[in-house]
C-alpha cells in the first residue's frame, strides 16, 4: 500500500503528466516547423548581430571557452562543458516524467560510483552541500545520548563532531598530531572502552590532505565492535579515491557535488548501506530534523528510482541534470581506472613540489590524499605572498585552513586530473614554480 505521501504525489502525476506530454509534443512540432535562425547574407560578416550570434553559440557549445582562471582549489573544481551545459537545462517540472527519469537514472549510476550492487543500499541526493550529509547521519542514525567515535585528521572532524552534538549525540574525538591519523591500535583501544553507535572517518581531510584508510578501519570494527556503523566522510574523496562500499562493509558514505563528482555546488550525496537503513528503522526517538529526515527522503528516492514522481521538497532540477551528465562521463571508464588516474595526477604534483624542496603537511606519503596536495611554504614566504602571484597567472590555489602551519592547498580532482589534454596540471605547476621564484624561493629558480 502506497504511503500517503506517494499517493498524493501520484495524484499530482495524473494532473501533470498529460500537460507535460502536450508540452513536449508542442516543442517537437515547434522545433520542426520554426526556421532556424540564419544570418542574413546582406549583413556584413563582422556585423554586431553576426558576432553576437557566433559568440553566443560558441559559449553554448563550450562554456569553458569563456575566459576564467584555472580553479585548482580542493573543491569546487573545474567542470566539463557537458556538465555546464546540462546545468543550463531549460526549466522542467520536478515531478514530470522526463525529470524523474533523469533523477532515477542518476541514483542508479551513483550505486556504480560508490561500488555497491546491494539492492538494499540507498542512495540519496538532496539540495544542500556536504555538511548536510553530517546532519543526515547525526539526525537519523545517532539517538540522543548515543556515542560516536570521530577519527580526527583535521578541521573537518571538528565539524562532524559538533554536528553530532547538535542533535544530542556524544562525540569522542580520537586526535592525531597534525599531518597524521589515529593508529589502528588507538582505534581498537577506544572501541573496547565504550559502545559506539557510529565511528566516523574523514577519508580525505581537506584541511591537511591526510588520507585515511577506511578499509582497515572497517576490518577492525568488524572484528572488535561489529554493531558500530562505519560512516565515511568522502566529501573530498568519493569518485576519485579508492572506496569500495560493499566490499569493505562501509555503512554510510557521504559527499557533495562540487568535488570529485564534478558538478557545481548544491547537492548533498549520501549512500546508506543496509545496516544504516535498519538502524534508522529501529530508531526509538523521532528523526531530530525535518528537512534531513530519512523518513521523508527514503520514500522519495525509492520513488524516483522506480520512475514514479514524488514530492517532499523541490529538488535542484538543473543540478540533477548536471549530475546525470557528470556520472555518465565518470562511468565511461571503470572506477579503478579513474582512481588510478587520480593517483597518477597526484604523483605528478607531489613529485614536482618535492623536487623543488618543499614538504607536505601529511607526515607520510602513503597517508597523503590523491585528490589534493597540501604543501608547506618555505621560510619567509606567506600564502598572501604566493596566492596573488598565482592569481596574476590565472591560477587559483587555496590557502591553508590550520593556523598552526604555513601552507597552501592544490586540488586535483575530476577533469583536471583525468583529462591530460586540458593541460591543467602543467599550467598549474609551471605557474607555481614561476610564482615561487618571484617570491624569491631559491628552490624554484632552476
Ligand atoms: C572532508 C570534508 N567534509 C565536509 C565538508 C563540508 O562540505 P560542504 O562545504 O560541501 O558543506 C568539506 C568541505 O570542503 C570537506 O572537505
From TrEMBL:
Keywords assigned by UniProt, alphabetized: Aminotransferase, Pyridoxal phosphate, Transferase
A family per Pfam: Aminotran_5
InterPro entries reported in the protein's UniProt record: Aminotrans_V_dom, Aminotrans_V_PyrdxlP_BS, PyrdxlP-dep_Trfase, PyrdxlP-dep_Trfase_major, PyrdxlP-dep_Trfase_small
Presence of the UniProt keyword Hydrolase in the record: no
Gene Ontology molecular function: alanine-glyoxylate transaminase activity; L-serine-pyruvate transaminase activity
Transferase listed as a keyword: yes
Enzymatic class: transferase
Cofactor: pyridoxal 5'-phosphate
Residues in Aminotransferase class V domain copies: 85-400
Biological processes, Gene Ontology terms: glycine biosynthetic process, by transamination of glyoxylate
Signal peptide range: none
Gene Ontology cellular-component annotations: peroxisome
Similarity-based family: Belongs to the class-V pyridoxal-phosphate-dependent aminotransferase family.
Protein name as annotated: alanine--glyoxylate transaminase
